[in-house]
Specification:
The protein has 104 residues and is mainly alpha-helical. The protein has one domain. Helix content is 85%, strand content 0%. The chain is built from three helices and no strands. The two termini are 21 Å apart.
Length: 104
């Protein structure tokens, strides 16, 4: 399915926003792991440690998977727009995408 340049820019902007939301939610997820593992550790310390390790690995895998999906969406959008890969900050890229979307 061919996407328009506007759709590609919108998808790229949403990928940037989703990545920012991931950075905000990571400490909350870590805190939840600590709370759950602490509750489990009150019954048995070994199970509490196992819960920390298991939940930590699950969090790491899920974060990596989400980040890879966002990177793939951004790369696909960049190719659709025909832009070259530049070393610019996320804020500059967001402003550039917003200007592009305002024009169309």
């Amino acid at each position: 399915m061919a996407t328009t340049r506007r759709d590609a820019a919108m998808r790229w902007r949403e990928a940037l926003r989703a990545e920012a939301r991931l950075r905000v939610r990571l400490p909350l997820a870590v805190a939840a792991i600590v709370v759950v593992s602490s509750a489990i550790a009150t019954f048995n310390l070994q199970f509490g440690v196992a819960a920390v390790l298991l939940l930590g690995v699950l969090l790491q895998v899920s974060m990596e998977r989400m980040k890879e999906g966002l990177r793939a969406a951004a790369e696909s959008s960049r190719q659709t727009l025909g832009w070259t890969a530049e070393n610019i900050t996320t804020d500059e890229l967001a402003q550039r995408l917003d200007r592009f979307l305002e024009q169309r």
